[in-house]
Specification:
With about 425 residues, this protein is an alpha+beta fold. It folds into two domains: about 5-160, RNA polymerase II/Efflux pump adaptor protein, barrel-sandwich hybrid domain (OB fold (Dihydrolipoamide Acetyltransferase, E2P), Beta Barrel), CATH 2.40.50.100; about 190-425, 2-Layer Sandwich (Chloramphenicol Acetyltransferase). It contains eleven helices and 20 strands. The chain has helices spanning about 110-115, 120-130, 150-160, 165-175, 190-195, 210-225, 235-255, 260-275, 320-335, 340, 405-420; strands at about 5, 15-20, 30, 35-40, 45-50, 55, 65-70, 70-75, 105, 195-200, 205, 225-235, 280-285, 285-290, 295-300, 305-310, 345-350, 370-375, 380-385, 385-400. The longest helix has 18 residues, at about 235-255. It is elongated and about 90 Å long.
Length: about 425
Amino acid sequence: MALSVVMPALEMAQETGKLVSWMKKEGEQVRKGEMLLEVETDKAVVEIEAAGDGLLSGITAQVGDVVPVGQTIAWLLQPGESLPTTSDVPTVTGRRTDAAPVAAVASSEVVASRGVGARVSPKARRLAQDHGVDLATVRGSGPGGEILADDILAIRRRAEALASADTRTLKRALYEEMPDTPTANVASNSDVASGFNRTSTPGAEGLSSIARLMAERTTQSWTSVPHFFLTRDVDATALNAAREALLPTVETSHSVRITHTDLLVAAVGRALRKHLRMNASWNSDRIVLHPDVHVAIAMSVDQGVVTAVVRGADTASVGDIAVRRRELTERARAGRLQPADLSGATFTISNLGMFDVDAFSAIIVPPQAAILAIGAITDRVVAVGGQAAVRPMLTLTLSSDHRVIDGAGAAQFLRDLVTTINNVQAL
């Protein structure tokens, strides 16, 4: 049976995708699971696998084309099959999933085939009944394709967003991760690192898609989220000592050099576990507390800034965090971050210490409740036991959403975070 290759939906608010390359040629045999094409979204370039076997035929999209999500751009045919006519192709309706299939069976059986035999958690089943979601149309994100409660809630959020009046409202309703400041991989050309592409008109500059989206999202956050800021100076003596002590151990066990950022991600993760309101989201008119702690690290890429996620930061070892951070940094530099690398964060940190910035205030990444800005570690004269002394000092600035957390709650989190940093070697 002919399989249609469609432009996949790789992000919640994605409406189109840009074809970067075909990894197979017209008429070439394709095997299920082989890389078939590359697609660029607002956040990343993603390699897409073939969903079945067949001869690649009827390519209609060329490199550089921007194609609506769900549109057929080629076919995978079996020997002896010809390209389907318009009347042979069924009309598929329904909600998009976070990762729509690249090749869908050209038959009405495509939807039914997803739900048959798929495991469904009890909570997901109840939510599906409450919201009128057909489980046969849901692609589960759990182990073995199990349909989880989060899958149903994501569909519900998308359905509400799709009812909005215009594209900009839709993008804002589905707002996910995008920070305001870069922290790694600085390009040598300052224009490129800032996300600008210079046009032929003197004095005019064009934004890349990532930089344009970042501009929209930070504006939306700054104008709609009630920010407040807390600042704390921290003696980094223990942090420096922990890095020096752990360097040889982690290099031996994980073949990676740990950084101050790795230690701070671990410390933030442990502190968030004690403060549920900081590991929360604002959703329309209610606060959503997240059971998992996923800390995003702001990173600079050629086109702008992205946030790459370290999952389970509250339980991961410093070595595991360092490995994950290195993988994310390498993929970010190569422009090969996957949607899973960029989604699901519950808290963000932005570190400008490597740029000799002493302190700054970062813009919250909705729907998260807070973001931590980290400055440089510098020697300063401070009072120690009533005497002047020189200590390596670090300034932390916490930006919080006042709808989710009040000043006292944020201050308690910051206090516990500093305590954790002072004992980070024990993590």
